[in-house]
Specification:
The protein is built from 21 helices and 15 strands. By secondary structure, it is of the alpha/beta class.
Length: 499
């Protein structure tokens, strides 16, 4: 009988499960719904393990009885290790609870943590009592070698690349990083290891968005992002024929009609991107496609690229605007000009694409005037194309990113425990250490609300009162006059139900 390995996917949000069809098209609701994507990380690891081991995948986002499932497996099976894949933020909380369940079983099963958080701060991760082994980088080969070592009965973990652990002398040992495996050489994921339909269908049976990874890594230098810390600016892609084969599988087997390609770096290599788009079109896979890219890449698209984007069915594209201050863009090594944002939007207008330009507020060293510059750029984008979404987010200090490491050094911010990292959220994260005050937050949120009122998307129009608010807000945004914000105060009272 094969020995068992448990792989656990924690929830990303503290709220209920997000597999209901969106009632609105707000940015945050779409983002939460999309967090029901397939657990690609542990599926890829599970695929590498399944020939030799009995792999049990448990997803906290769907398995309400996950505690009982874990306890039963630990009771009835010989388990080599229990693995968690966690990003920085709330899903660490789920991972900790999973670790506690494993510990409470008293079977002595080692708990292995992998994923983005462990990869960026393995030394901090391994200090937690909830972690026995921390995996850095890609985990497929590492997990297989670890399972074989544990199965052999040898006590030493020495020589397994890509892990961090505490040895018998109480010393933290960082084994050398594993070489990055190109996307084309990774095994094709065995999606039958999970119930795919619960990820790709809403409760009413209609298809949900498929998040599909055709590339790994990133060639750019953005200092606020932790991808560079893991992939060292390496970027690689799957061959077009494999992408066609895998997407066709989801269309034919699960009725997929909307595909999010990669999230950020599908267009990093224009020649390869064209080959993929041609292959999708030639194979009858004209669907609803969603992705994200950079403003400077859009400005380099030639007529052939634009024609392929139209033909294949792109309906939405995210663009990292980040800031309206050139000084801040240069500081975070974004590699674009402020003017690229408006010019790239003009390109997307010709392609009938609904874009979303995301911006950050509260970057380390950002002044209030620079925040206002960002708000001004957002307003200019909305004036150019009212249906463009311009979500503004407060800077999230991702561990491993150069921006955070520099700020940490300059302000003597101590390392954080796994429990402290678990309290991070997607909105405001330890803002007191980043000089983001409550007054600043209120100021930005008020301005963002006025921008939303001034240039509403079609889905945000809600009748006569909304139209009045919209007219007043447009007057304020255009004139930069926000004194006596009576409609702002009224909206808050209406929201609380006190009017």
């Amino acid at each position: 009988m094969k020995k068992t390995i448990i792989l656990f996917q924690p929830k990303f949000w503290p709220g209920p499960l997000f597999n209901e069809k969106p009632r609105t098209k707000t940015y945050y609701h779409e983002m939460r719904v999309n967090f029901n994507y397939l657990p690609l990380g542990i599926l890829s690891v599970g695929t590498a393990l399944k020939d030799k081991y009995d792999v049990r995948i448990i997803d906290q986002r769907f398995d309400r009885d996950w505690r009982e499932q874990v306890a039963e497996i630990l009771r009835d099976r010989e388990v080599l290790f229990a693995g968690v894949s966690a990003c920085t933020g709330y899903d660490i909380s789920g991972g900790i609870r999973f670790s506690e369940v494993v510990r409470e079983a008293g079977a002595g099963v080692p708990v292995v943590w992998g994923g983005w958080h462990s990869s960026t701060v393995p030394g901090q991760t391994i200090m937690s009592r909830h972690v026995d082994i921390a995996v850095t980088g890609q985990g497929e080969q590492t997990a297989l070698e670890l399972a074989e070592r544990l199965e052999s009965g040898l006590d030493s973990l020495e020589g397994i690349r890509g892990i961090t652990y505490i040895n018998s002398d109480g010393e933290i040992v960082h084994e050398p990083d594993r070489e990055i495996c190109p996307a084309s050489e990774l095994p094709e994921i065995d999606y039958t290891m999970v119930d795919v339909d619960r990820y790709l269908r809403y409760k009413d049976g209609t298809p949900a968005r498929l998040f599909y990874m055709s590339t790994i890594g990133c060639p750019f230098r953005c200092s606020f992002c932790s991808i560079a810390a893991v992939y060292k600016r390496h970027w690689s892609s799957k061959p077009p024929e494999r992408i066609v084969r895998e997407i066709r599988y989801f269309v034919e087997k699960h009725g997929t009609d909307t595909v999010e390609l990669d999230g950020t770096n599908f267009f990093a290599n224009p020649k390869w991107a064209k080959e993929v788009l041609r292959a999708l079109i030639d194979n009858g896979l004209r669907l609803n496609y969603v992705s994200a890219t950079r403003a400077d890449i859009i400005l380099r698209w030639d007529d052939e690229m634009k024609d392929l984007i139209k033909k294949v069915g792109f309906r939405s594209l995210g663009v990292g605007g980040e800031s309206g201050s050139q000084r801040m863009l240069d500081k975070i090594d974004k590699g674009i000009k402020v003017g690229d944002l408006l010019e790239s939007l003009k390109v997307l207008k010709t392609l009938d694409i609904e874009p979303a330009y995301t911006f950050m507020f509260g970057l380390p060293g950002e002044t209030l005037e620079e925040s206002k510059m960002t708000l001004d750029v957002m307003a200019r984008l909305k004036k150019e194309m009212p249906k463009v979404r311009t979500p503004g987010l407060f800077y999230h200090a991702f561990p491993g990113s150069e921006t955070f490491l520099q700020y940490q050094r300059e302000h003597n911010i101590p390392d954080m425990s796994l429990e402290e990292w678990a309290r991070y959220s997607f909105d405001l994260t330890h803002t007191e250490s980043l000089s983001i005050t409550g007054k600043y937050v209120d100021f930005i949120r008020e301005r963002l609300k006025y921008l939303e009122w001034a240039y509403p998307t079609e889905s945000n129009r809600r009748g006569v009162l909304w139209n009045i608010f919209s007219w007043l807000a447009r007057m304020r945004v255009n004139r930069g006059f926000y004194m006596l914000p009576f409609e702002w105060m009224l909206s808050k009272r209406l929201k609380k139900g006190s009017v």
